[in-house]
Structure formats: C-alpha cells, structure tokens
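A reminder from the course coordinator: this example appears on the midterm review sheet, so study it carefully.

Given structure:
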C-alpha cells in the first residue's frame, strides 16, 4: 500500500485521523498551511507546510511519498462566518479543493476520502436524517461541501477517482491518550466553550432558547473524534478493496440539546456553567440527528464513545492538561 496524504492533518479531526492511520501501520504525510492547524498536533509522521492549491507542491508530495490515497480535511468550517463571508468559503472550500483534485488525478491517485458535513441537508424535513434526504444547505459552508460532493462523480467518470464522502454530525471529544484535542481560534464548538466557561466561571452564550425542541435549544448529534477516525480508515479500506464510491452519515443517532450538553459538562467537571441567552445564529437548524445505518453496515463502523458524558470527559481531560490549547507547555 502506498502513502496516505492527509490534507488539513494539523487540524482537529485531521490530526486524530493521521494518528489513527499511523497506528494502523499506514504511511502518512500531512499537508497543512497551519492557518488553523497546529504544528504540535502532527506527531510521528511528516508535516509539510503548504497550500492544497499549490500544484507544484502537491505533485512533489505525491511523487516523493508514493501517495495512492488522499484524505481531505483542509477547509474552513464556521457556519456563522460562512453566512457573513460566503465568497471566502467558495474560494477555500471549493476552488482550492478543485485545484487539489485536478492535481491528484493528474498524478493518477485513485482514492479519496472527503470530509463533508451534515450541513449539506439544511433544515431537516424528517429525522433522523438518512443519506437519501434532500440536500438544501442554508449556509455557504454546507453549500461549499455539497459543491465538492457533486463534483466527485464527474472526476470518477473522467479520471477514475473513487471517493467516499463522510458527512459528520457534531465532532466532539479528544484523544483518550491526551496527545490531541480541540483547539480552534476562535472556538465555536459548544463542548469546549462550555468547558472553558465551567473552568473560568465565564458566561456561555446560548444562541436561542425558542426553537421547536423540548427545552427550546438546538439539538445536535455528537460523535467522538476517535470514532470519526475509525470511520475514515474503514472508508479507505473499502476503496482499496475496490468498493464503490459512496456517501455516509456519521453520527450516534441520538440528539442532545444545548442545555443537556451544559448539564453533562456540569456533571463531569463538578462546576456550574454560567449561561446567558442570546439571539439565534443565522443558518442554525433546530435539530440535526443522523441515521448511520448505512455506515454501520457497509463500513462495519460501530461508535465506541457513544455516551455524552464519556465524550465530554475526554474533552475535559484534554482541557485540564491544555488550558490554552497547543500553546500550553505540558512539561512546565
């Protein structure tokens, strides 16, 4: 087997996947421009600092490392920011990805695992969401990911590039070994923000408490980052075993509201989470809940970290040793 190129492999999910690939005895090389990723998150595998749209650099990496598969995580991920600055999302998530695809098919790479999102569905017409649910994003982030999903069948017909698109629901948690975790700037995800509020007794803003849900706050399906990493390896195995291109949801199949997450954080940390209620964020559906039946069947995927308190506990352990993220000197 050749080398797996992990774009965005210094980021939250990409770094966990790169570590899992290395532990599975796969050759790995990470490409990341470190705009949002962290050099310290890449361990035991080579890190090349650069952009996925740099054709010469990507060609060099494919040839130097004998790359036969790409796992593509590089891109922007803020729903709110995509509503305010849609053009930037089309440049970073669409245009640059097309540049990457053109380069790798020119080098005869045949396998791609694409990091997609449940945001491609938009406002659900029914839950849980299956892969056959209509796709109608309500923000530029979801639209940018869907644009690539729609492009991939054309690349397969023209160039033989087989792909699996993995539509994550809410990625959460941290490496149980404590080496890797979530470190965004600014942090937009609920669990790390709630942990920060608990630890520092600062106020957490709840974006809307008037949604059509039992407690009025948004419900989300939280899936542990280690379980996501396992799904990526399963997807690559299917492709390398000559399986077909496909799309899969990745979620636990159970929704938790913002208030339920806050309660979990309080149980795990033993601290109260101070809260204030703000207005709804643009582009936020009330409920996002996955059906992962297809992934469990075809990828043989079974989430290990399905309990919310367990997910929160791994994130809390990471926070305790890295209160300032990767900037923390854990040896001091």
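Designed residues:
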């Amino acid at each position: 087997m050749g080398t797996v190129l992990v774009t965005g492999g210094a980021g939250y999910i990409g770094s966990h996947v790169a570590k899992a690939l290395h532990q599975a005895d796969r050759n790995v090389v990470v490409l990341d421009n470190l705009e949002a990723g962290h050099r310290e998150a890449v361990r035991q595998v080579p890190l090349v600092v650069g952009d996925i749209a740099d054709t010469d650099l990507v060609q060099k990496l494919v040839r130097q490392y004998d790359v036969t598969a790409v796992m593509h995580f590089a891109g922007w991920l803020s729903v709110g920011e995509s509503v305010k600055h849609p053009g930037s999302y089309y440049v970073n998530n669409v245009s640059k990805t097309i540049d990457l695809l053109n380069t790798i098919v020119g080098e005869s790479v045949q396998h791609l695992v694409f990091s997609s999102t449940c945001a491609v569905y938009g406002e659900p017409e029914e839950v849980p969401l299956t892969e056959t649910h209509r796709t109608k994003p309500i923000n530029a982030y979801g639209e940018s990911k869907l644009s690539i999903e729609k492009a991939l069948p054309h690349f397969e017909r023209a160039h033989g590039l087989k792909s699996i698109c993995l539509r994550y629901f809410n990625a959460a948690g941290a490496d149980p070994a404590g080496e890797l975790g979530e470190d965004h700037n600014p942090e937009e995800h609920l669990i790390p923000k709630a942990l920060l509020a608990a630890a520092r007794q600062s106020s957490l803003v709840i974006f809307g408490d008037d949604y059509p849900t039992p407690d009025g706050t948004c419900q989300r399906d939280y899936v542990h980052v280690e379980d996501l990493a396992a799904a990526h390896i399963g997807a690559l195995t299917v492709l390398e075993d000559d399986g077909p291109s496909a799309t899969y949801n990745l979620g636990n199949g159970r929704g938790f509201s913002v208030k339920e997450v806050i309660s979990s954080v309080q149980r795990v940390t033993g601290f109260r989470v101070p809260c204030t209620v703000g207005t709804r964020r643009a582009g936020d559906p009330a409920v996002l809940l996955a059906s992962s039946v297809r992934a469990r069947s075809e990828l043989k995927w079974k989430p290990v970290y399905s309990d919310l308190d367990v997910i929160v506990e791994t994130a809390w352990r990471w926070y305790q040793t890295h209160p300032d993220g990767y900037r923390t000197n854990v040896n001091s």
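The two ends are 40 Å apart (CA to CA). The longest helix spans residues 86-106.
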